């Protein structure tokens, strides 16, 4: 329990959930019906029970809060435990007193203690979270395809079945997808209890007023290879999520959308920024918008690097990392890879001159592959010896993160 200016920092109890929702409603000016608000409260209460909900209290009044949740993500083929940040908010009259920064520091300490060496969040202010050590790691594509632009692919031997969104084949497809896709959340995480896994799938689209539908593509051997979550509203088709394990499944799912052409005027959708939606369509003159989506932060530099899947062998690099929020990440780290074994030593709490210099947020976007070292040097987010930067470019795996979840 921490104290500051007559305030107390402590865990938020489940019987204080109403205060938490009131704070979120005020800060984000949510406009929800009673029914939707009840569903939102139920969803958040389950998350509060699973994660760490921490707040500052003025007497019995909750005035600032943060929630961290236990997830797992795939980072270039390695599964990392990840701390997901959500439900962040402070009443305006209590802002500019460092309350949120202290909550973030407490969350990072707890993540570190629990082996969550990376953190994701959806930013309501990118500049704010950059100052706290997070950086952009994924994009989202929103698109509109006219009914006359919908594709049709011939020669497919599989078939589509409409199923319940929680059908076991949907879960199976996603599990395979998560094992081979860099950046994504592992929804069947061993870090979760079985009930939390079920709740996560059930509540993924809890904000919807329209029943979510699902379609699964099966190949000619009746093996599920892809799925799509969708809705049909006011003569338009909305794609909420499309996941496929092979190209045939992608084509089959788009054929399913095309089969609705007599019912709709447009197909709207959103997907990962790695998906070349326009390029893959015969008529590529669609409306498409790419936006920054999630941000990531390295919670513990040394421990994250120890598990990182470097490419190549027998090399050594020095990184001088600055982190204005937590002291344990400040300093110079020596990475040595020899005979496929990675060792990381923090040789100094200061930033050595003979090292590659970067901030913890630049380190996150670089190691996750959203931006490469050569580009980061070009825009002056990374400085160092040209030979060492060239080496860094070769030993980092290639691949931009995919992230399609929200919490």
Automatic annotation (TrEMBL):
InterPro entries with a match to the protein in the record: Acetyltransf_17, Acetyltransferase_Eis, Acyl_CoA_acyltransferase, Eis_dom, GNAT_dom, SCP2_sterol-bd_dom_sf
Residue ranges constituting the N-acetyltransferase domain according to the UniProt record: 7-155
Pfam family membership, one: SCP2_2
Protein's recorded name: GNAT family N-acetyltransferase
Organismal lineage: Bacteria, Bacillati, Bacillota, Bacilli, Bacillales
